[in-house]
Design a protein that fits this description.
This protein has eleven helices and 17 strands. Helix content is 40%, strand content 26%. A five-stranded antiparallel β-sheet has the order 2-1-5-4-3, with helices on both faces. The protein has a five-stranded antiparallel β-sheet with strand order 7-6-10-9-8, sandwiched between helices. Strands 12-14-15-17-16 form a five-stranded mixed β-sheet, with helices on one face. With 480 residues, it is of the alpha+beta class. The two termini are 80 Å apart.
Length: 480
Amino acid sequence: MTNISEKFNISFDAFDNLPDLYFLLSGKLEIVAANNSVAKLVGQNKCILANKFETILIPSSVVLVENTIRQAIKENKTKKCEAKLTIDSKQIDALLFISPYIDNRNKRILIIAQDITGDKRKEIDLLRFYYVAQNTVNPLQITDTSGKMIYVNPAFEKASGYSKEELLGQNPNIFSSKRHSQKFWDGMWNEISAGKVWIGEVENKRKDGESFFTELLISPILDYQSKVIGYFGIHRDLTEKRALEKQLMHTQKMESIGTLAAGIAHEVGNPLASISALVQIIQRQSQDQFINEKLELVKKQITRISKIIRDLVDFSRPTRYELQLVNLNENLVEAIDIVRVGKKAKNILFLSNLDENLPKLPLVSDQIQQVFVNILINAVDAITDRQLSSPETINGEIVVDTSFLDDSIFISFTDNGIGIPENNVSKIFEPFFTSKKDGKGTGLGLWVSYGIIKSFHGDIKVESSRNNGTTFKISLPLMN
């Protein structure tokens, strides 16, 4: 805007049909003229002429406007500032352009006020959205029409494992799991390109390769002509939901197997007892060494089958043992003493870090000790397998820790054995699953242990990787 000079003699009526608010002030900052836009705000029955300009400013804007006027007069230039006007009880956010000039040797000041109330409201709305977007736990992203990301919030960075700098300008397919067909994505693009909202469940890959599941809602961003100018996506994390669904399926499968086990134990147990009795009778009557050796082999296999059946029955049958307060530290020490006398454990170091303040729990002592012994035996076997398969000397070590926090007691068993392949970790609590060689294990030890821990309302988890050892973590609530 150029300065209004005395070379131009313009009537103030020329501003009447302009939408902005025009004020003409005297050297004393009194309003001497105003255009029709001001009159419409004031009303026909009211007049602001001869009033000081400061009377239509809210108090917090007065000093700023007066300082800007003085600066404009001093420099003889147009200056601008933002202020809030109050006219006839209406508050208006305005951008003021302040121009000094001389009219017949009288100092005059022309103020043009542009109403920016709507812009301010949009700015506030944008700031509110930005604050919500930056602090929400839901991952958010905005892409342009080509699909390139132009905004991601901190939650999105956390969920994907990528930084904002790595994501901006990239297509979201950089973390695609490749689990969805092209038809799936084509259907999504057809929906959002038509200005419609799309909702679907997707599986993505974090930067570290781990899967994460989300329910994704994509909404098109429209301009004032309803033209799509971008897309807004919000994710709802389904990882925990998927884990709970998987755990529920696992529990249901365990219950079904338990029911089946009771029937198998009954049908197999009776004929097995008969076979065992016949073997013992023949052994007593036969003097043939070869026959007796083979009968002894049969007898061992019968004993092995009987143990499997007992384990099945123990798992499927509700416990009838009486709960007693058990000192878990003492129970663990006994379990370690039982296992360390074995031939395989002779060169393995057992370390224990037991919390002396551990409270007692109402448990079945024999059952919980069975869990500890099963885990320790597996640890010994894992260390032995690694020692046999590694050309280097492996010093076997098993560390047992106990602690309690809040309302739970935690027990962990860590070994430096051969570990469990990643694809087998989720299967180790299933019945008859074993990674040991044929004849070396029934695959029921951890399954039974799982059932015992669950019967005490606890939880058991495993962390393992090949050649990096294994850690079993047991948690038991203080109040059962």
